[in-house]
TrEMBL record:
Described purpose of this protein according to its UniProt entry: Component of the acetyl coenzyme A carboxylase (ACC) complex. First, biotin carboxylase catalyzes the carboxylation of biotin on its carrier protein (BCCP) and then the CO(2) group is transferred by the carboxyltransferase to acetyl-CoA to form malonyl-CoA.
Cellular compartments per GO CC: acetyl-CoA carboxylase complex
One GO-annotated biological process of the protein: malonyl-CoA biosynthetic process
Compartments (UniProt record): Cytoplasm
Protein name: Acetyl-coenzyme A carboxylase carboxyl transferase subunit alpha
Keywords linked to the UniProt accession: ATP-binding, Cytoplasm, Fatty acid biosynthesis, Fatty acid metabolism, Ligase, Lipid biosynthesis, Lipid metabolism, Nucleotide-binding, Transferase
Protein species of origin: Qipengyuania flava
Length: 314
């Protein structure tokens, strides 16, 4: 069952009519193939036109869609021989940030990413993808292993932000995020980061300070959520659509601003409608970027990252 977003209601109504027509025609000798074909074409065109003109707020809703593929889905579809590694060797393990060794089309990589979960129980277990200090320290440990063994790093970013709870602050959340960002920038091996859903604040930057940053077509990336921005500026979350527009959160805006390097196309209707196709598109894009970075020396990779972030700051 597809979970429809508010702006998809016209598509939902049309697809419901198609389903009802199919059901009514079962066991009937009346030929309705022409009518079905007409309605299916109309539905496909409506879906395509809707997704061609999404507002930034609508893209935010798509990026948060409950059926959108997450880290584990991409691992299953794109990567092979994933060997998860847990714990930060200091406090414990954080299931909001997962990682380990994997293969991508035969290439050995270290893979790290946020996992939000796909049902109530798993979302609670993974803390809705909001990493704690031990999660970022685990990421640092994995990046150090990547540097030691000469393996490229791939990160899949999908978080509304790092966990803001008191216990996280007590264990040094800000310091862990800063050191994870530093570890990205200091890597002696290639790093490709992909924003696959939400890229929220420092919790995202801590895994996305790479020389190549990709973004799924309907993902969003910002320093604060549109609701958070609206609450600060207008004292009401109802202004979130206006905030999303002003903040330039979409892949298209960020590519134009030079914040990201590449937009990865999604299937018509978003990655949640065809996770397999979305995964194939992402896997191909990551593979191409890794191929391009393969010949760079460690000092050249660090220079690329330095130039990227100094250009943004300037």
């Amino acid at each position: 069952m597809i979970s429809y977003l508010e702006f998809e209601k016209p598509v939902a109504e049309l697809e419901q009519r198609i389903a009802e027509l199919r059901s009514a025609a079962e066991g009937d000798d009346v030929d309705i193939s022409n009518e079905l074909q007409r309605l299916e074409l109309k539905s496909a065109n409506l879906l395509a036109s809707t997704y061609q003109s999404l507002t930034p707020w609508q893209k935010t809703q798509v990026a948060r869609h409950p059926s959108r593929p997450h880290f584990r889905d991409y691992v299953e579809q794109i990567f092979e021989e994933f060997v998860p590694l847990g714990g930060d060797r200091t406090y414990g393990d954080d299931e909001a940030i997962l990682g380990g060794f994997a293969k991508l089309d035969g290439r050995k990589v270290v893979l790290i990413g946020h996992e939000k979960g796909n049902d109530t129980a798993s979302r609670i277990r993974h803390n809705f993808g909001m990493g704690k200090p031990e999660g970022y320290r685990k990421a640092i440990r994995l990046m150090e292993l990547a540097g030691r063994f000469g393996l490229p790093v791939v990160t899949l970013v999908d978080t509304s932000g790092a966990f803001p709870g008191v216990e996280a602050e007590e264990r040094g959340q800000a310091e862990a995020i800063a050191r994870s960002t530093e570890a990205c920038l200091a890597l002696p091996v290639p790093m490709v980061a992909a924003i696959v859903g939400e890229g929220g604040s420092g919790g995202a930057v801590a895994l996305a300070s790479a020389e190549r940053v990709l973004m799924m077509e309907h993902a969003v990336y910002s320093v604060i959520s549109p609701e958070g921005c609206a609450s600060i500026l207008w004292r009401t979350a109802e202004k979130a659509p206006d905030a999303a527009e002003a903040m330039k959160v979409t892949a298209q805006d960020l590519a134009e601003l030079g914040v990201i390097d590449r937009i990865v196309p999604e299937p018509v209707g978003g990655a949640h409608r065809d996770p397999r196709a979305a995964s194939a598109s992402l896997g191909n894009a990551i593979g191409e970027e890794l191929d391009q970075l393969a010949g760079y020396a460690p000092h050249e990779l660090k220079r690329l990252r330095e130039e990227r972030f100094l250009a943004l700051a300037g």
